[in-house]
Prior knowledge:
alpha+beta, Immunoglobulin-like, 3 helices, disordered N terminus, signal, DUF4352 domain-containing protein
Amino acid sequence: MRKTLxxxxxxAALAGSALVFGLAACSSDDDAPEDTTTxxxxxxxxxxxLDVEDVADDEDTDEDTDEAEEAExxxxxxxxxxxxxxxAPWTDPITxxxxxxxxxxxxxxxxxxxxxxxxxxxxxxxxxxPDSNKPILAEGDDIVFVNYxxxxxxxxxxxxxSSLVAVxxxxxxxxxxxxxxxxxDRDLYEAMELDTNAxxxxxxxxxxxxxxxxxxxxxxNFMYKTDSPVxxxxxxxxxxxxxxxxxDERQEESVEVTLS
Length: 260
């Protein structure tokens, strides 16, 4: 298309130049002949410049079109999703920092466990050693942050209670009757990009439906050590539509892993 247009412009320029030359030949001998070479060159240059401008404009248009098509092909980020996970309507957006270290498998659910980071504890824990009368977890001791991503892996919805799927961590050599201590510090969790409270919208009935394929994430922290494996136990007791516990459908599954 551009070559045809350029050819027409060159022909038009040559035709115009020939006409000027003919008129000059018919004039009186006293008149000096006109120099048409400059006009021809000028017309040809103008034609080439216009042709280059047309090419540049078309290239810009093609680039804009390609960019627009790429933007359309890119999927929009879901406000309640992260990666392959889709968050339940009542929970906060799922967070996935850290490295996955284990998975707990239940009959109709799974819990992915991520080790996120280690930080010194900003304060003493609540539990005290009965022999030394000192905190089991003292200020300055290392604590590890973990993230649990719970997913409904079945084809049916699961009605969860306000306890959701409770995940409890305990070192294999833990010698105390109480469970392991945890430090409450919002700033630390935010720095780790973690959420401690999975429920964003409270249910008056205390029922939190988890549809097939839906997930939620919830974080925790505890004393950090690598000389003993951690036993993570997931406990699920569903409820009916009125929020009554279905104790006969209770599940308890666990996995053992050593932290890095």
